[in-house]
Amino acid sequence: MNSDFCVAVHAFVYLNHHGGKTCSSKELATNICTNPARVRKILAMFKNCEFITTIESGPGGGYQFSGDPDKITLSDIASIMKIDFVEPGWRSGDTDMDCLIASGMGNLMDGIFSDLNKDCYSKLSDISVSDIEHRIFGTTKKAGGKS
Amino acid sequence: MNSDFCVAVHAFVYLNHHGGKTCSSKELATNICTNPARVRKILAMFKNCEFITTIESGPGGGYQFSGDPDKITLSDIASIMKIDFVEPGWRSGDTDMDCLIASGMGNLMDGIFSDLNKDCYSKLSDISVSDIEHRIFGTTKKAGGKS
DNA sequence: TATGCTGTAAACATATCAGTTACAGATAAG
DNA sequence: CTTATCTGTAACTGATATGTTTACAGCATA
Fold first, then answer.
1. Residue B124 and residue B122: Cα distance in Å, rounded?
2. Taking CA atoms, which of A113, B3, B103, B128 is between 20 and 30 Å from A141?
3. Residue B53 is part of a domain; what is its CATH number?
4. Contact assignment for B6 to A119 by CB distance below 8 Å
């Protein structure tokens, strides 16, 4: 998996924590420990959703959190980025072979990984941007949070 | 993730399906569509467990399934191989920075991915080697299998 | 007009992955 | 004993992926 997801989540948390302030890609890159171009490339994926407002040009431009941090989950973020958390990346066997094992294992494993991926999304839908912030700053919001 | 896991599962299913027969790394590699050296390297990880018997030398050497295909699950296989299905591979921020977000996000994301990984293991503990075989050959063993 | 921001692309270095080749060690067959 | 065969393991290679750096067009603000 690409670590772009980590960058995006980090940016979301940072932007949310800095409230209405507009942050430049440079400021975000410094905090995330990466380069501004990468931040811009990743946050550009969120242009057509309401989570982040982008001011593309002019001094004072940058990114601003514009969603409900309690509603936006890591699953939402991953979904927009089309992240595959689990992926085989390589298929054993060959569909054209006679042996049912050789011809079937590729698709079968793809299916299993696809299921695992869905489970990841499901799990991440329980973690909101607010939750992350609370975990970092130690401010427990819900009493019943697990661990 | 590495696709070694796919190779291992494929080999397990193949060996199981061929009963007591001893198969060489070459035969397995042909079926999996990879090279014998890779098969040997991967199956060597199972030397100290009872799932597979290895005859290391001499003509007629090779690998043989020696476990209970109903009991051995994909989770068992992954566990022995120490597979990380989900891994960040890159840490945003830096533990030494003052900002709590910058210093905390790395560990926090690691924790989340670690949880996802555990969930993957949990899911895979429901899939046995027999299950895979049944899926491939269309022989339904349990009536209540999902999909 | 000058400045500063995003969006985007290209070039680069590095790491990872799988394939290939090779060889030591061991065993069975002749 | 000699030969053939198989695993375990390491080194080398080529392809692909990943993140960094640099650069530039487009645009808004002062």
1. 5
2. B103
3. 1.10.10.10
4. no
